[in-house]
Structure formats: C-alpha cells, structure tokens
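Form 12-C: Joint structure prediction
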Amino acid sequence: MPETISIGETATRSALPPAPAPRLRGGGAERLARNRRRSAFFGRAFTWLCGGALAFNLLLVIGILTLLIVNGMGYFWQKDLVLLAQKDGNKILGEVWEVEKTRATVDAKAHDRFRLKIGNRDVSGLDFAWLDEKDVASRSFPQDAVLLERLEYGNFYGFMAELRAGGRVLATGPEAVWKAFGPLHARKDQELAAIRQLERGAIGDINYEIEHLRLARKRLDAASLPAAEKARQAAALDSQLERRQAAYQQLADRLARMRQAFSAETLVMRTAGGENKEMPVGNVVHAYRPNALGVFARLRLYLYRLWEFVTADPRESNTEGGIFPAIFGTVMMVFLMSIAVVPLGVLAALYLREYAKQGLLVRIVRIAVNNLAGVPSIVFGVFGLGFFVYLIGGSIDRLFFADALPTPTFGTGGILWAALTLALLTVPVVIVAAEEGLAAVPRIVREGSLALGATKFETLWRVVLPAAAPGILTGMILAMARAAGEVAPLMIVGMVKLAPSLPLDHHFPYVHLERKFMHLGFHIYDVGFQSPNVEATKPIVFATALLLILVVTLTNLAAIALRNHLRRKYAGSAI
Amino acid sequence: MTEIDTARRHAMPESHPHPPLAPAAAAPVLPEPARDPALDPGIVDPILSIEHLSLWYGAKQALNDISLAIPEKKITAFIGPSGCGKSTLLRCINRLNDLVDGVSIEGEIRFEGGNIQDPQVDINLLRKRIGMVFQKSNPFPKSIYENVAYGPRIQGINKKRELDEIVETSLKGAALWDEVKDRLHESALGMSGGQQQRLCIARAIAVEPEVILLDEPCSALDPIATARVEELMQDLKEKYTQVIVTHNMQQASRVSDYTAFLYLGELIEYGGTEKLFLNPVKKQTEDYITGRFG
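Section 2 - Result
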C-alpha cells in the first residue's frame, strides 16, 4: 500500500513546476503526516504503558496491605461461640474460622464445610476441627458459653461448672461460678503481678549480684596475691556471697508460698462433649462470654487485644500473647545500626568525594561499594559471625570477661554484632546517598567559605556537611528500611526465638549490647513456619507482618520529619 | 573589521601560546624604569603588585605576563570580553585558583611586600586578609546572622556579644542592617538576589579584610540592586581596597578609579579610569570601550 501512494505522489509532483530535490525518502507530506500520527500514537501508548506500570505496582502494594490488614486485624475480633449438635449425637463448641464449599462429586453434591477453632488442646489434642454441614443437626449460640484465654494449652471453650478452693467448693453452676469467678480472678491477677514483680525485681537483682560476686571470686582465685591477702579477700567475698544466697533463699521461699497460694483455687470447666477439666484459676488470663457481648463490648475487647498484642510478652512458644520484645528488639537493633552506619558511611563518602583524587582507583572503589549492596545478605551474616562474633567478640571476652569463660559474653551472637553486621550490609546505601548529597552542594558555596579564610576541614564541617545533611538522612532512611526487614543474616549473629530479657533494663550499665534479641522479621518466620500450631498462629503472622511494616513506616516517618526540618532550616538549599 | 583582526593578531600570536611568551615580551622590555604609559599609571606605594604573572590551565595559557599595581583604598576595575582572563587574574590574588586541578602559575603577586605565591604563606590567613564577593551570590544555607558570623567564628571569636557587634557593624557596613535586623535568624536563602549579594559583602567585611575582590558582583542583579551595590562600594572605599571584575563598561567607568583592560590573557592597557575611557592609548582599548568589538 505505501508504495502505491508514494508513486502516485511523485507522479503528481512531477506534473508541477520543477520540484525541489526529493525531500524525504519515499517523500511527501502524507508520509510525514503518517509518521507524525504514528509517533503521536506511540507517545500516547507509552504514556499509558508507564501509567499502567505504576498502577500495577500500586495495586500490588495495596493488595499486600489489604491482605495483611484483613487477615491480621480480623484476628483480634471476638467471634461468636457456636454449639453444634452433630447428627451422631456429639456436640462441639467453637469459633467458625473458615467456611468452604466442597467439590461436587458423582455421589455427593457440593456442600459447606466449616473449620472450627475448638481449642481445649489439653483435652482433645487438636485446636481445629473440620465439620461437614450435612452432619450438623442443630446449631445454637448459648449465652453462658465461656472462652478462657490461658497461660498454657491455649484457649478453652466450654461451660463453667464449679469453683473450688482446696477441697472446698466455692460455687456450682454456670451463673454462680461466673459471678464468683470475676472478683477471684481479679485477685489472682494481682497475685500474678506480685509474683512477676518479685521474680524480675528482687530475685533478678539478687541473682545479678550473686553472679557478679561469683565472678569476682573466680577472678580472685586466678589473681596472684600473697596467700594471706587472698584468703582475707576470699573470706570477705564468701561471706557476702553467703548473705546474698541466704537472702535469695528467703525470697525463693516467699515465691514458692506465693505460687502455692496462687494455684490454690481451681476452676472446673465442662466441655461441650460433657467432659470435666479442672485448672488453677491463676492459669486463666482472661475469661469471656462472647455470645453475651454487645458490639461495644466487643469493640473494647478488640482494642484491648490489639493493645495487648503490641505491649505484652509472648506466651506458649510465641503462639499467643504479644510481641513487644520483638518490636523492641527490632527498633533497638535498627537504632544501633543507624548509629554505626551513618558515621561510617558519611566519612567514607567524604573521603571519596572530597579528599580522594578523582581517578581510576576511586572509580573502582565506587563500583566495588555499589556491588557490595548486591552481595547476598546471608554472606554478611556469615562474615559477621566470623569477624564480629568470633574474632572481635572472642578477643573482647579473653581481654575483659576472662573470668566468665568458658561462658561467652561478647563471643556469641548479640544485638551489637547484629547491628554492626547490618551496618556493613547497608553502608553502600549510605555512601551513595551521602556522595550525592555532597556533590549537590555547589562549588561556589565552598569557595565562599574558603574565601573567608576557612580551611578545607572547616568548610566541610560547617558548610558542606550541614547542607548535605538532608541527602545523608535520605541514605539513613533507606538503610533503616533495609535493615528493619532483614532476617537471614541476623539468624546467625544474635537473633533468637525467645529472649529471656530485653537488651535494655534497670541493671547497670542499662544497655546490654551483648544480649540476644527478638526481631519481628524472625518472629514471622518462627511463628508462621516453626510453630507447633501453624494453623492457629496464621493470623499472628499477618498481624506481625503488618506491625513490622508499621514499625518501618514509623521509623521512616521520624527520619523524614527530621530531614524536612533540616530542609526548612536551610530553606531553598540546592538539595 | 580588518583593523580588529590585525589588532587581535598582533595582541596574541596565534602560533603557540604555551611556552614562549608573546614576541613583544620575548625581547625583554622591562629593564629598570622604562615606564610604558599604556601599562603603568605610576601608582606609588601599591598594596598589591602583580609582576609578570602567567597562568596555565593544563597546557592552555590563560594569563600572559601580566604586571600591574593596585593602589590602596581605591577601586580598580578589570574589564575585557568574556574569557579574557580577568576573573582568573582576580582569583590569583586570593589564590582561589589553587583549588583547580592542573593550574600552574609563574610570576609574583606582592601583597604588602611579600609574595603570596610563596609556599610559606598561610593561605587561610591570606584569604582572611583578601576577601572576595562572587559573581553569583553564595550565602551559606544558614541564617543571616550565621552567614555574617561565619568568618569571625572561623577566626575563633565565639563570644555572643562580640559576634552580635560584628554582625551589626558588618550588616550596617553593607547597608543591609535596616532591612534584615528583624529577621537575623531566618534563612539567608529567603532574601532577594540583591540582598543576598550585599549579605555576601557583609560576610566579607566581617573578617575585616584589607582588600575586597569583587567578581562581577552585579551581573545577576537588576539595575536598582546594582545601583545599591555600587553605592556601597563607594562607601567601602574609605576602609578597603577594592578590585572589581566587570564586563559592564559603564559600571567600570562609574565606580572605579583605575581600570585595566585585558584581552586574551594579556594586559592591554592600564590607567586612570577617566583617562582610559576618554583617552585610551591603545587602539584595541578604544575599539573595545566604544563597543566595536567585545
């Protein structure tokens, strides 16, 4: 087709007065117009393509967030307890977690199947049960059905039967027990708090002192002192140790008494199947009658559970309770990492950009730094283990904590080594961002400073660095986001499933950089894939993931606010 | 046109600009007094004297055997078309060219007797004594107050009262005080272009220099702001020696006492401003100031 048109064109043209030299190949205005139309079409199509790519990305992000929010946030909403009577006479009490249609087969039509959370792990051994719609004879929502959240064995679904103290019966029958249970449970809560207080407070302190005295004693044994002097000091230490141990014994006795009193009262629960189960009242964390709760009461419960999730310690190998230690560990680790990575990265960038003679070597170094960002993170973990933990940590132990050996102090994974490992991992990001920030400070501003008699160092320190600060902070934000989501390298340099204590407490020196810590990212992996009860913890995985995103977002927002503050302060600066 | 061409050919031998100096200079013209009326206005006791200064950027020669004396507490203007080396010459005076890679300099610049090219010279002290104002205003991304206090702080003045006083006198000296006294602690980057340039002057005089170098200070300013800066220069004449680079000839004739005309890296003519503009010795100068080329 195009050929015919262009031939026709030339023909008409040749009829006109001598045409100027042939213009475009195959020439003519029409072709020009066609080209223009075509490129306009491609331009429009390209715009749509770009927009479409962005929309697709946004859709993915929104999809992930929706998935997390729906799955994670639904977990805290209390569902009704349904009592199902089966056609074979069995009764089951539980929460409906899932309904699905079975596939129609030759001999059966499609029908609904429920997945029920039935709890009572100590009775039936299973948390969940599948039930066919066709097997159900009747269903009801008894008002007196009780849900117990317990310290052990997960939830219990059933009916209150009896309250006992020792051999004495305090109350019988669902209503009477429910009434008596409330105040008793409140008292038990206080007792539990007192026990925790004693364990973590006084007993923890005394253990800490005993450990120190024991180490001092060990040091003394190793020291080269005159025998008499040694014996004198040893005696002093021993007597102190004895006093502490006596005090400890006293406290331990008190604790035992408290525990005994704590578990004095028991609650007898009857399952839907009619079995009785006796348990200490103190074991119950919360008791509800979900079916009797109104919307507002459920809303309050929802918020309370959300709050508990964020602020409480985990229970039952992380499958229940809160995730506070993991949040705390993540934030603190990221914070420590920032402290390490920003000076390191900025100083390196300063040298590369301001001091080093720009040439082949610097270019190679720059490429190497950028490539460092592509090294698999687990490799950094292995390096951290070898270098930080074994080499540096081991040396620190030999030099400063020799008396505690063979128990390692710094020679084992800890939050400091984890933070430093991640600092190495993220330092390329900071270097690149800081270099860009430095490069964006105009030469004329530097010359202005030099022309006032400032040295190069003064110019860098007082003019260039402040002006580059927003760019540097951008690097820090990127590094923090990267570090908060990193899991693999941390698994071998100090992250644990359950840390006995936070890396920050009231014992001198308050910050314990050698301690192991929990991390949201690892928590997700652990709860989701390593837990004995994967089905039950699935919502926790979603909620934890959502929280990790939230933590990252919040830390980033804080850093962005700081950057904007700096930008406003240097309003109109080039960066 | 042809006149100019010949003039240009005469001024700058096209052959090899690099090692040998221009043929005129090759036969050493300057024994003792031999005072060339085109190049030496007979300044006694100059604060700065540039002697046989040549400068290369790598292999490219930018300044060729320039000698001139700059009088104290007067305004000396360097004029010439773009690329003639006037800014380069100015930046030699506070050794700002040291920062450029591949610069080599021959000759001397004597400042109150000593040669500033001497490696013994404390370059930061030199730059404190010879201040500079740049073509594009370059306030630091700090507050107005901190901009002016920057130099004194570098000199180790940290007492607030002293700094307050320096800031006030400097801003008054730059005729800026009344405009900014209520917003000293706001960012300097929020000021207008003319104010920013006067702030840069205030910043320069805050360290009490002896010489102020102005590198086309008004090229980015509107006529009113330009007039204010020029007025300011006249006020500053009492205390400071000023050297201004400009390619605005009216400005040079308005503000300066002495004018040097540079062309293609050479000093063509140097003399009292009035004489140079009204009665130039060299034909090239006349062509340039009458606007026949440039």
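Section 3 - Comments
DSSP finds 14 helices and 13 strands in chain A. Residues 82-158 of chain A form a domain with the SH3 type barrels. fold (CATH 2.30.30).
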